[in-house]
Amino acid sequence: MAKATLLRDPYNIIITGVGGQGNVMSSRVLGSMLADKGYFVTIGETFGPSQRGGSVMSHLRISGKSIWSPQIPEHKADIIAALEPIEAIRVLAPYGNPDVKILCNTRPIYPATVIRGEEKYPSIEEIKKSVTKLASDSIFIDATEEAQRLGNPILANIIMLGAICGSRTLPVEKKNFEEAIAGRVKPSLIEINCAAFDVGMKLSQG
Amino acid sequence: MSALLDKKEGAEHLLMGNEAIARGALEAGVKVAAGYPGTPSSEIIESLAGVAKDANIYVEWSVNEKLAMEVAAAASFAELRSLCVMKQNGVNVASDFLLHLAGSGTRGGMVLVPCDDPGALSSINEGESRFFARTVEIPLLEPGDFQEAKDMTKWAFELSEELKQLIMLRSVTRLSHASGNVRFGTLPTGEAKARFRCDGFILDPDEGIVISAPVDYKHGQQHEKLKRAKEIFEDSPFNTYEGPEKPELLIITSSACTLYSREAISILGLKERVGLLKLGTTWPLPPKLLTRYLSLAEKILIVEEVLPFLEENVKVIAAETASEIGIKKFYGKNDGTIPMVGELNPDYVINAITKILEIEYLPRPEEYAAKTQGLAFFGAPQRELIFCPGCPHRASFWSIHNALELDGRKGFVCGDIGCYTMALLPTGFTTLKTVHAMGSGSGLASGFGKLGQFGLDQPVLAVCGDSTFFHTAIPALINARHHKSDFTLVVLDNSGTAMTGFQPHPGLEVNAMGDNVPDLDIAEICRSMGARVEIRDPFELEETRATLNNLMEDNEGLKVLILRQICGLSPEKKAGKKYEMAINEEICLGENCGCNRVCTRIFRCPGLVWDKEKQVTRLDEVICTGCGVCADICPAGAITRKEAV
Asked: Is B453 in contact with B490 (CB distance < 8 Å)?
């Protein structure tokens, strides 16, 4: 199959967030989009025993050559997409490098320790400052608010997926998303997912 | 139709390792598959159950892993291909049958797939199943990627039939729960007929009785099978070498570590200096192949997770062939080059190689590293393990904890395996004091309950989930009743095997394939043993607490309290809220109440948020499941509930 050249091979994407945000779903949709285009795709998922509320991270490796380790080596992420802002910080420390590109949802999900008033959640300005300092390029989106506008906050994951695809770093188009989402959600939900994807694409293209 | 039944040969799909194993079994024409849920293995049986009707196969979630292996073995004895699946711990449970099955041999191809969890990502141990293959003397295969997970599974059935022996195919979390491209082979057509031939000559492997005795004969047969396996493994396409003819360093590896090692060599740009021998057939090791590759280099690094299984086995071959291959310098777990604990990743292998070859590796510029250091000053607050909003376990342990405090005799709770294991932590008010294997909470309680003779005067409690009750708690209860052991078991019945994804168990009216089946009533089972049984809704806090205190005061043997409330994440429960909750900010006195902020500091439901600005507790309506429990813990009456419409 003819393939567009990747910016790097393997090209490494980390999608991070909190259990319940649909992180695993978005990494699998993106993986299918690229596998359908003929790439080797490896997805590694790190999730703990808590189904909701824990840090969740998916590693995607896109390659024209082979399968790679399901764990991205330290400091080798090309894109970090964070569905939750402090998760961006958590992942940047071990996986960041001067070329990394960050896409970050600005809506916090407070950890239990913050809810109880035991720990402080950094301000979004502090987070933005740190992220900008450590990334070659950073885009901040209130994906949750955009998703609520579409009628359901869970669509933030698809908006972020649209943002990844709109960032002109991957050889994928809207129609690849349409094909990949079709088999994964009820037919009645395809349209709203496509709308969410569009919102993300537009936002990342500024 | 599921992608797993795609008939097109050469079709490519992005599959989880577990799905690839399921597809491999389907391509081999598996007819019976049985397992017990356990991360990271559960999706293999789930995938097969999902296509059972279309593929005309039988799939079950057995009561425990020993049963699963027995159910699968029966199919093999009846000349069908069968699969049994479990997480590593399950092999311990099944190991008595496993030893005898290895001795008796099999007929229809039979494959045991244990999924190990190096690093204990979803376990409370780092158990190893590879040693079982060596201990019970059966061949062991370890796929190195997703394609191999499918291909080797299919081949394992053929090998099993050739050797008339059970084959172990071991996976790990990073294969089972990772995904990659898999190219499909063909699905078989044609039917298989089950028949159990047992009237032939007693020693006939196809028509005799199926038993591991006479031991000297059968054990001898077993060794013949291993010898034949060695010969087959010498030429296996699943053992590969990539690298120069004369490498400075030879890496020997298997399983997911193949991907880590390959990546490490690639990142360090050492393809011309380091060789990679990847083994798919790891017991018994093919000695000629090993001798050939060991001859290539002076320095040998063995990369594997958890115990030095491969390392020890390779060293035996190296010792036996020392006169031929010369003296080697080995690096691995025994000398500390590779850590003995935890899972590996490409960086561990990079560290090992750079140390051995004395080369520098800088994963990022120093200047960037310094910037990252600066970032750490406000660190990201950790997301601790916590029960979900509306989890019945939070309410149950609230009552258990309070009942123990009120009782005042320093009673304690023996824990078990499930989401509720987290009651070791503050989210369950640090209520559990022991946690071991499935069913061990009840077993330990049965023992503690007999120590009154030696002066133990603390009330003894145990907890177990509904699935765990059926798995192994029942024999412990029988033991306790028979020996008049005095303890109280609290069954946390949330209507499913919640932690691993709501797989059905014998207490439910549905099986793995979605058929209606008879359900067994936990209360009736306990009553039939002669236990005193009470049933409560854990969301009724006061009633639950009072019942528990009453049971603890009853010194007459075995008591069972069933706390019945469906898991908040279950598909049935997600549909609606029972209560609409509200917090009256005028009534909440915050830090001035004298309650020590019991709702946010102690009860800790994530639906309750401490508002620092206003100094009151707020409700997070998005995640609140409307269980209504927090209304009962607020002494000021600031939290209210009304029936949802």
From this structure: no
Distance from CA of B624 to the nearest CA of A (A): 13
Number of structural domains, chain B?
4
Residue B331, SS3 per DSSP: strand
Q: Which of B234, B256, B279 is a domain's end point? A: B234
Say whether both B215 and B287 belong to one domain. Answer: no
Q: Is the pLDDT of residue B18 over 80?
A: yes
pLDDT of B21-39, one tens digit each?
A: 999 999 999 999 999 999 9
Measured at the CA of B221, the angle between CA B216 and CA B222, to 5 degrees, comes to 100
For residue B489, the enclosing domain spans: 392-564
SS3 B549: helix
The pair of structure tokens assigned to B195 is 């028949």
- Of the pLDDT bands very low, low, confident and very high (cuts 50, 70, 90), residue B55 is very high
Q: Which of residues 105-134 of A touch B (CB under 8 A)?
A: 110-117, 119-122, 126, 130, 133-134
Q: Given CB atoms, is A45 within the 8 Å cutoff of chain B?
A: yes
What's the rounded Cα separation, in Å, for the pair B326 and B331? 16
B621 in the same domain as B529: no
Q: Which residue has the tokens 């950790």?
A: B382
Domain segments of chain A: what residues? 11-204
**Same-domain pairing of B136 and B30:** yes
pLDDT given for residue B501 in this prediction: 82
CATH 3.40.920.10 fits A11-204, yes or no: yes
Q: A-chain residues within 8 Å CB-CB of B569?
A: 51-52
What is the mean pLDDT of the segment spanning B129-146?
98
Which one of A49, A87, A116 has the shortest CB-CB distance to B600?
A116
d(CA B351, CA B359): 10
| Interface residue of B171, B179, B276, B394 to substitute, partner A, most A CBs within 10 Å | B179
The 10s digit of each residue's pLDDT in B266-319 is 999 999 999 999 999 999 999 999 999 999 999 999 999 999 999 999 999 999
Q: Using CB atoms, which residue from A67, A111, A117 is nearest to B600? A: A117
- CATH number of B637's domain: 3.30.70.20
Q: Say yes or no: B171 and B260 in one domain.
A: no
Q: Report ipTM for this prediction.
A: 0.95
Residue B227 has pLDDT above 70, yes or no: yes
Q: Indicate whether B374 belongs to any domain.
A: no
